[in-house]
Amino acid sequence: MLPKDLEDIFKEYPEDYIDFYIVKADYSGDDLVIEFILKLRSIQGEDPISQKWTIIASSPRKDKVSFNAAPFIEIKNDHPLLWEFRDTQCKLYFTGQCQNIEKLFYDLYLAHNDIFGKHQCSFDISLFKASNNFKPFQYSNGLLARGPKKLMEKYAACLKKNGLDFSFLDETPPGHWYGQQFIPEKELKILLMGDTYLIAEDFVFVKQPEDDTKTD
Questions:
Q1: pTM of the model
Q2: Is 181 among the domain residues?
Q3: Residue 91: which of 138, 155, 134 has the closest Cα?
Q4: In whole angstroms, what is the distance from residue 92 CA to residue 169 CA?
Q5: Which of 108, 95, 180 is nearest to 151 (CA)?
Q6: Cα torsion at 134, 137, 139, 142 (round to 10°)?
Q7: Judgement on whether residues 55 and 106 belong to the same structural domain of the protein
Q8: Which of 93, 3, 20, 65 is nearest to 199 (CA)?
Q9: At what angle do helices 149-161 and 101-116 cross, to 10 degrees?
Q10: Which pLDDT value is given to residue 216?
């Protein structure tokens, strides 16, 4: 899924000799355009190599761009960050009395962090914030969270671990309504580059001429 030039570099050089640096992110058009520098440290007396690349992310859905050095780049068709767009969406309801809200919150947070890791997706569960009409777990049943079913299943395991029952309601397939027509979500991919991720329909790589690769 990556261009052959990059794949060949990964085969020839150890990972700790390769660094990627994003130098520009252009959001002005319909596509997201990322420019990055690939730097290869000198090995066995060879001169260091620097290449400039452009990534065109078509029909982008979501991104987080970091300008820190990245040790790798890869594209995947399956990743937890894609669940928001490709998984069934639903609501997770709990039933029962929670004996230790602090432990439940901690278990939920650990499960969430284990799934998303450094590409932290917003953890929106607040078990201690009361609204005008509802205080979490004031009653023996209620809505805990809504989102991708795969994520809700992980949260449900935490409910069960803490002595609560659960149910999934209002399940809807991935997609959106356009007037009276439901439009299924297209196949999406995720590009990972260190702390950076891009979610889009496709990625096109363009290697720039060597004259454009010189950096300070």
A1: 0.85
A2: no
A3: 155
A4: 7
A5: 108
A6: 80
A7: no
A8: 65
A9: 140
A10: 44
CA dihedral of 23, 25, 26, 32, whole degrees rounded to 10:
130
Looking at the fold, whether 73 and 90 belong to one and the same domain comes out as: no
Residue 68's identity, in one-letter code, is: N
Residue 27 clears pLDDT 80, i.e. is over it: yes
Q: What are phi and psi of 141, to 5 degrees?
A: -160, 155
How many Å apart are CA 186 and CA 180, to the nearest integer? 18
Give CA–CA dist 152/92, Å, rounded.
Answer: 6
Which tens digits make up the pLDDT trace of 88-100?
A: 999 999 999 888 9
pLDDT of residue 92: 95
CA distances from 35 to 51, 54, 68, 145 (A): 11, 4, 13, 37
Q: What domain range is 9 assigned to? A: 4-77+187-212
Is the domain of 172 the same as that of 92?
Answer: yes
Cα torsion through 185, 187, 192, 198, rounded to 10: -40
Query: DSSP character for 70?
Result: B
